[in-house]
User: What shape does this take?
Amino acid sequence: MAAIDTIEVLDNLQFEHLDTADIFTIHADGMAGESVVTFPCLFPESVLAARVIINNNYAASPMIVAARVKLTAVSGRTTTTVPKIQNVQPLEWTSIAAGSYAETAEIDLTNLSEPLLHVDVAVIAAGTHTGTEIIVQVRKEATVEEWTGWCRPAVLVGSVVFKADVLSTAAAGQKVIAVNNPTAGNLNHVCKQLFILDATIANSEVVFQTACGADA
Assistant: This one.
């Protein structure tokens, strides 16, 4: 059981969050009650390049979102060489206004095995979000002439998002976050992902909530 006016998360925080940080959640249980989606996308080794477009002009009345794209893959695999895990970030956490978009540069997949994209999108405003589209395109040609649509899921459609404030500094490495009246702030739905928007957007993070304390 979490202490009064706190929530707890599963993994240690990656970054310090001051009382200027915001927490975004949805007043519901389960995956339908998450204000952030983490979307994986795996490619065959025949794909030479990929790119991701986060389309926040997908629906009539979207809210502002933040998005990030990471790539993990195996490189240097031969019959005599131990493979290495490659981990790069084609798109750092980026704020995307309603009716706008963000895109990665071309992501070179040549000489990589098991390339896996990790696309994260979070709503970072209180209100009803009408959806954001993740557009993933691939290229098999040696020149940049044509892109083929790989997938384009719509996420966070109809999400009613609430904002809570971090009450006092939460240090990197800890699991407890002080929040004023977490139950009244709709943080009493555990076992789901929340999004912490830091004043430095690159230090924002997705957390998995495990407990909610009572209101003071």
Summary: The first strand starts at residue 6 and ends at 9.
